[in-house]
Amino acid sequence: MSLRYFDYYQQLEEKLRVEEPLMIQAGTWIAQRVAAGGRLQIFASRTLSGVAFEFWEQLPDIVPGKLIKNPADGIYEKLEGTGQAIIEQIETNPQDIFLLLSNEGRNPAIIELAQWIKEHEYPVIIVTGFDLSRSIKSQHSSGLRLFEIADLVLDNHAKLHDAVLTIPELDPSICGTASVSTMFLLQQMLYFIAQFLLKKEVPSD
């Protein structure tokens, strides 16, 4: 028996390594904001909510963060207007920075949240399936997808329905990678943030 999932992920890891300059850039921006007294505010669509929670819980004290809850566990996130319920729970200070996670980046709730963030001139970093998101239509009336609003995009290489392996006797495809690849990107980014802050060598723009 071959370890097909391991083999697939080994190839995916090489693609994720290409994101190194962007992970460093994201780490730089977050470190700059934290050093100035800000927080890392985190929100995730339903499919990546577990990743967001785990990442937030693991943040060290030197990286203050806040997890923005997805109302009703995200079951209404495809309905336009539901972003307001997310926005209403947000409290900010001027140096905050936002991290949004969404494989498809097209649901109205997270689009509305991203629009609010940009209207209030906060920087926003996203993790999304870049090629996937570009290939599908937004479900928001603006026609926007998350990557079109973000200041910086990290690509988790998510596939449609987050399924990457096929078995001839089984339909549809199975085995997802988006949660694992997203966490890889975030943890490496966090390592860069901690390095910058602990060495007190936060790069300037």
Give a quick summary of the entry.
Helix content is 41%, strand content 15%. The chain has 205 residues and is α/β, with parallel strands linked by helices.
List the keywords.
205 residues, Rossmann fold, 5-stranded parallel β-sheet
What does this protein structure show overall?
The chain is an alpha/beta fold. The chain has a single domain (4-198), classed as Glucose-6-phosphate isomerase like protein, domain 1 (Rossmann fold). 41% of the residues lie in helices and 15% in strands. The strands form 2 sheets. The protein has a 5-stranded parallel beta sheet, sandwiched between helices. Helix 5 (108-119) links the parallel strand 3 and strand 4 (124-128). Helix 2 crosses helix 7 (178-198). The longest helix has 21 residues, at 178-198. The termini are far apart.
What is the terminal separation in angstroms? 50 Å
Low-confidence stretches: none
Order of helices and strands: HHEHEHEHEHEEEH
Total helical elements: 7
Mean pLDDT across residues: 94
Major beta sheet, specifics? 5 strands, parallel
What's the Cα radius of gyration? 17 Å
CATH architecture: 3-Layer(aba) Sandwich
**What is the helix fraction of residues, given as a range?**
40-55%
Give the structural class.
alpha/beta
What is the fold named in CATH at topology level? Rossmann fold
Strand content: 5-15%
Layout: helices, strands, pairs:
Layout: H1 4-17, H2 20-35, E1 40-44, H3 49-58, E2 65-67, H4 83-87, E3 97-101, H5 108-119, E4 124-128, H6 130-135, E5 152-155, E6 165-167, E7 170-174, H7 178-198
